[in-house]
Amino acid sequence: MALQNTHLGAAAIEKMLSGGPKKIFFAGIGGISMCSLARVSQLRGHIVSGYDRTPSDITRQLTKNGITVYYEGDPAHVKDCSMLVYTVAMPADNPEYAAAQAAGIPCVSRADYLGYLMSGYGCRIGVSGMHGKSTTTSMLEKVFSDAGTDPTVSCGARMVSQNSAHRIGGENYFIFEACEYMDSFLDFYPTIAIILNIEMDHVDYFHSMEQIHASFHSFLERTGPDGIALVNYADDDVMRAAQGYSGKLITFGVEEPEADYCADTISFEKGCARFNIRYKKELLCTVSLRVPGAHAVCDALAAAAAAHLCGISGQDISQALASFQGLGRRMEPSGHAKCGAAIYSDYAHHPTEIAASLSAAAQMGFERVFCVFQPHTYSRTSRLFDDFADALSKMEQGEIVLAPIYSAREVNTYGVSAESLSDAIVQNGAECRFIAQFQDIAAYLNEHGDEKDMFLIMGAGDIPKVIPHLQ
After folding, report:
1. Is residue 242 a contact partner of residue 236, using CB atoms and an 8 Å limit?
2. Average pLDDT, stretch 10-22?
3. What SS3 state is found at 130?
4. N or C, which end of the chain has less CB nearby within 10 Å?
5. Residue among 363, 353, 346 at smallest CA distance from 269
């Protein structure tokens, strides 16, 4: 069973860590977000160590930075520690966590600790929404860095410009991805709170749209009455969550002329968009993106609006977005297969994201697209089953290959399977097959693909492990 967020607050954590350097242990230190918290803590003078299940590029870099990383759990690792920071995905029987609890060592959730770290920064920009958070956060990093503001950034994916999920900069700007799962974002302290979109997701935690609306409204209110909410005018659920917000409400919208910031005159070349951004109906800048997909227009518009609100010029925004190269596992080029097909890796794991990624892939000039999709969690697959079937059935000039469901933190009490999802997709008239083993998926693709095709490896689990088998 997953652990809960602590919600102690920045002041309480600050008090725990006052009085000089402390020993802080990070359980799950190799996580894409946890590693940045560990590194910032080390730079603040604390003695940092942590545990993760397996070595990775992230943990090896932490070791190079002088942080001790263990790969086997042991209660002795937390001896004399002042604090343990954990992720809510971690089981409660983790040896270090259990030992810390028994010893009375304060245990703080990742989100709570991130809120504490950001609280000392001047301008804090939080990017929320069910989709596009990492891309928008990475775009903001590029714009703010290129403009010379030296931001500190915590992203949920590897940013190509930094080859890392974080950037350690100055203390004027803190840009962060605000995850809604388990209401983690209610531990954060944004001065500008962005909502990109809202729909049903994380069905193991959120049970109704009313609950989701309330959570996102509470996130906006974390800015306080002097803060800014930057919200998507085109999304009815976003606007419903923003009703009654006590701060300053600013809107953005793709082809929404009534929004404060509007993207219009949109055209595409090989899937990549060119468009104008207008502020109060006046041209702010023209943007030509290098990353594919219509959904990238909304992400870029939100990033541009936040940057403009912070005083960055339209020219600087345009130049930075034009050179933005994307981020890890977001339609990321990943080499070529033995048969010559181009391999792309994508994190899409919700029906809306899948539809957007498949649409982008269809515009990129390949003859066929073979999409290998691994459903993520039984609860999401069960609750959104028909939506998954519909989204995957929209594949144009290609084929879907389904891998087994990635269980993540769950047990299959739902009676759902990738095989049944494959049957539903076939019933919708699309070409789909289920293949259980990664090496067999790779063999099938290499047998049927060629140099004119794209292999799109999609999902939020361990599906990238297919890629080495392809090459």
Report:
1. no
2. 95
3. coil
4. N
5. 363
Domain enclosing residue 445, as ranges: 332-470
User: What SS3 state is found at 315?
Assistant: helix
pLDDT of residue 2: 67
CATH number at residue 392: 3.90.190.20
Terminal CA-to-CA distance of the chain, rounded, Å?
A: 37
In terms of domains, do 95 and 137 share one?
Answer: no
Mean of pLDDT over the chain: 95
Task: Please name the amino acid found at residue 384.
Answer: L
> Does one domain contain both 166 and 149?
yes
Asked whether the predicted pLDDT for residue 391 surpasses 60, the reply is yes
- Residue 403: inside a domain: yes
Given 61, 92, 111, the domain boundary residue is 111
Instruction: Compute the average pLDDT of residues 68-75.
Output: 96
Q: Rounded CA gap, 264 and 277, in Å? A: 7
Q: What is the CA 69 to chain-centroid distance, rounded?
A: 24
User: Does residue 99 lie within any of the structural domains?
Assistant: yes
pLDDT of amino acid 446 = 98
What is the signed CA dihedral for 319, 321, 327, 330, rounded to 10 degrees?
-140
Label residue 175 by pLDDT band (50, 70, 90): very high
Tokens of 409: 């933190």
Arithmetic mean of pLDDT, 365-387: 96
CATH number of the domain to which 79 belongs: 3.40.50.720
Render pLDDT for 251-260 as a digit per residue (tens, 0 to 9): 999 999 999 9
For the chain, how many structural domains are there in total? 3
CA 405 to chain CA centroid, Å, is 20
Closest by CA position to 185, among listed 156, 158, 157, 165: 156
**Domain assignment of residue 145, yes or no:** yes
In order of 56, 231, 298, 445, the CA distances from 294 in angstroms are 33, 18, 8, 27
2 in any annotated domain: no
Classify burial at 394, counting beta carbons within 10 Å of its beta carbon; exposed 0-12, middle 13-18, buried 19 or more.
middle
User: What tokens does 213 get?
Assistant: 């609306």
| DSSP-derived secondary structure for 11-22 | HHHHHHT-SS--
Compute the average pLDDT of residues 281-286. 98
- What angle is formed at CA 341 by the lines to CA 338 and CA 347, rounded to 5 degrees? 110
Is-above-0.85 flag for pTM?
yes
Question: Are 268 and 157 in the same domain?
Answer: yes
Question: Is 396 a residue whose pLDDT tops 80?
Answer: no
